[in-house]
Amino acid sequence: MATEAYSESWRELIDLAGQERQSAASGPMSLASAGGSGGAASRSDLEHSDGPWTTAAGVAEALRTSTTTARNRLTSAHTGVTAATEGLASSGVLKSVLTSWEDRLSSVRDECGSLAPKLRQVGKELGERDTKVKSSLREINTPSEPSDPKEK
Fold it and tell me: How far is CA 113 from CA 59, 67, 83, 121, 135, in A?
């Protein structure tokens, strides 16, 4: 069926699809999101950096430290409160709230302590994987110029 039978908006879409097929057949494939000139990625665009993982590990450690400090301050601030509020109904409630917050802060502290070394390990493993992939790609023999599919 000829494209004339379609509305103008459909003809535009069909024309675009044809252009996409033509450009895909005539040029090398590249990642559209990789940036660079003409959509082609440069080598540095594809390399891994452990910086974000190391930074995240440092943040987790800082949060672990500040959570520990907050828990200690909260506990010390409640020292003697039970004796001072003896006989009041709120004394038991205050103690349960303190215990609840101590438990929550301890959980955050423990999770952050567990997370920091894992984040560092991910950065290390990804860097090692990049090195292995780069080494294995060197073994692939590729022509310097893409061949013209019309010549075959």
Answer: 11, 11, 34, 14, 35
Tens of pLDDT, residue by residue over 14-27, are 777 766 555 555 55
Nearest in space to 120 (alpha carbons), one of 57, 52, 49: 57
Mean local confidence (pLDDT), 141-149: 64
Residues 6 or more apart whose Cβ sits within 8 Å of residue 25: 149
DSSP-derived letter for residue 151 is G
| Residue partners of 103: CB distance under 8 A and separation at least 6 | none
- How many CA atoms lie within 13 Å of 147's alpha carbon, on the beta-carbon side? 6
Quick: pLDDT tens for 74-132. 999 888 877 777 778 788 888 889 999 999 999 999 999 999 999 999 888 887 777 77
d(C-alpha 65, C-alpha 67), whole Å: 5
**Gap between the Cα atoms of 129 and 24, Å rounded:** 30
DSSP 125: H
